[in-house]
Amino acid sequence: MPLYFRRANSFDPTKPRKPRSTEGREEAKAAAKMTSEEWKKKQAGMDKKWPAPAYMSKPHDHGATCYRDETYEVTTRWMAETKIAYRPHAKAPGSKSHVRYEKYSKAKTVGEALKLGSWPADWCWDYERGFIKVIGPVRDEPLDSSKITNEDETTDVDKAIWRWYLRELAKRHELTIEDLKGGCSGESLIMRAHRLLSQREARRILKDAEKEKRKITNDEVLTVLRKWSFGKNTNRVNVTPENQEWVWSDTLGLLRDRIGDIHLTPPTKTYPEVIGVLNKYLHDRIPPEMKSFRWTSINLNCNYAAKRHRDGNNFGPSAIQAFGDFEGGCLNYWPEDDRTCDKEEKMKAADSVKLNLKDGLCLFNGNCSHSVDDFKGERYSVVFFCVRCFNEAPQECKDQLRSVGALYPEPDADRYALLRPPRGYANKKEVEAKYKKKQSHKFYPCSKMDKADSPAAYPLLTISDRIAREWVTAKAGKAGAIVKVKGRKEAVPKKGAASQEKKAQAKAKSKAKAKAKADSPKGKASGGGADKAAAKSTPARKEKKEQLVTPGKTTKRAADTQDAAAAKKKTN
After folding, report:
1. Which of 345-349, 366-370, 485-489 has the highest mean pLDDT?
2. Angle at CA 465, nearest 5°, toward 386 and 468?
3. 250 to each of 247, 368, 477, how far by Cα in Å?
4. Please, are residues 38 and 413 in contact by the beta-carbon 8 Å criterion?
5. What is the structure's pLDDT at 1?
6. pTM of the model
7. Would you tell me which of 50, 362, 415, 535 could form a disulfide with 87, CB atoms 3.0–4.6 Å apart?
C-alpha cells in the first residue's frame, strides 16, 4: 500500500462517549445457542488460523469504527460473486452482534452476506479482526460509478458499497458528497478525497504565506505531497523499475498525449492550489543565476527508484528536488551523454555524478541519462521541466499556467541559456570552445535557496483571481512597472508575454501578405512590386499620416482643396 494516505481528523479520547444501548440485550441472551464457557473452548487456536491483516499491527490513534485506508482498498473491490469464508462463532454469545453474526456468517459470497443482514460497515469490522477470508474474485480497482453506462448491470452489492463509502469518506474528511462526485476522470473515491485534502491544505498554506509575507517551506511542500493521492502510472515504462508494472507518478501542467494533442492535465485544472504551492516554492527560491529558468510542467513521484533512462521530450534544463524522511535515493547523472551511445548500459559509472536531492535543488539536462539509487523510507521527488512543444500550446493553456505561478518560456527561448549541451565522446573540443563558461549541471543547497529573493514578475494568484484574470500588456505602462489589476498590484509582463507574442505573430503575417501581393504579376503591372510595398512604410508616408489633425477639425488636404475652389470661383 502507498504511504501517502493520511486522515483529516483524529480520535479524541477525552471526548465523552455515547452510552451503549442496552435495548434487546435480554432477547440476545435468550437467543444464544451456547454458553460463554462453550464459546471460549471453540475459540482455542482460532487466532492463529484466522489472523488479522498485517497492517493492523501498526499504531492507530483513531476510534475502533474509523477503519483504515487499507481496509477500504480491499472491501471496495468486492463484488456480489466474491467468495468469502467467515470464522466460526467469532463473536461472544449474549450480545446482539453474536445473534446477527451467527446468521450472516453462513454466507459463502458477499452477495449472500448482504441478503442475510450484513452491511459494508460489518465487512470492514470483521475483515480488520480476521473474521473474514477472501477467496475471490475481486475487482482490479474499486467500482467507478462515473463509468457505469447501464445501471441494470450494477448489483445490490455494488450499490451498497458505493452509497456507504461515499457517505463514509465525506464524514471522515469533512467534505460534502457533491465534492467527492466532482473529480477528474479515472479518479477513485478515495483518490478524490485525498486530493481534496491536499488541495485544502495547499489553499491554507498559500493564504498563510501571503498574509505573513513569507516563502513556502520544505515541510509545507511535504505536507501537500503526503496528502496527495498518486495515480498508478503504467505509461512511464522508461522509468519503471524491473519487476514492476507501474509507478506512483502524476504530471501537472502541460502535456502532449499519444495522438499529438497538447493540453493541461486534468488535475492541473481541478487542483490549481496544489500546483500553485509547488510553483511558488520554486519561484520564491530561484537564485539570481537561475532567474531565466522557465517551466511548463511538474512531475510528482512517490516511493520508487527510477531506473536509468533519458527524457525524450524536454526543452532546456529540468529542476529536481526530493522531500521526505529517507536514506539513499541519490540522483545518478551522466552530464556528457549526447545520446550517441546506443545503449545506456555501455556508459561507464565513472562518468556519472551523484547528487543528494534531499539537501537541495539540482538543475540538470533530463535528456541525458540519469537514474535514482535505492532508498529506505518515504521519498517524494518534484521535477520542474519544459515540454518541447511549449510554443504550439493553445494560448488558453499558457494563460492558465501563468495564473498559477508558472514562469512560462518565451517563444525565442534558448535551451542552452543556463546549461551547456553535453560534450559527448566525439565533439568535446567543439562544445568546450562554444560554451566555455557554462556548466553541465548546477546544485543549489537548501540554505542558499532559502536566502534567495523572490522575483517580482508573474505573481501567484488565488483561484478567484485566476478566474477573473485579465493580463496587462506593455501598453498599460512600462514593462516591469507595478499596476493594479482587479484591485491587485501586479507587474506588467515584459516583452515576450502572451499579448506581445500574439501581436508580433499578427504583424509578421501582415507583412508577408503585403509583400506577396506586391510581388504578384498584377502588382508589378501596376508599377508596384517590392518597391511599392516598401514605400508604404517610408518616412514620407508616415509624415503625411501625422499631418492629420483631431476629429472635427479640417485637415491640411481639405484646406488646400477649399482654397483652390474659392480661387476658381473668383476668377469666373
Report:
1. 366-370
2. 100
3. 9, 21, 39
4. no
5. 36
6. 0.63
7. 50
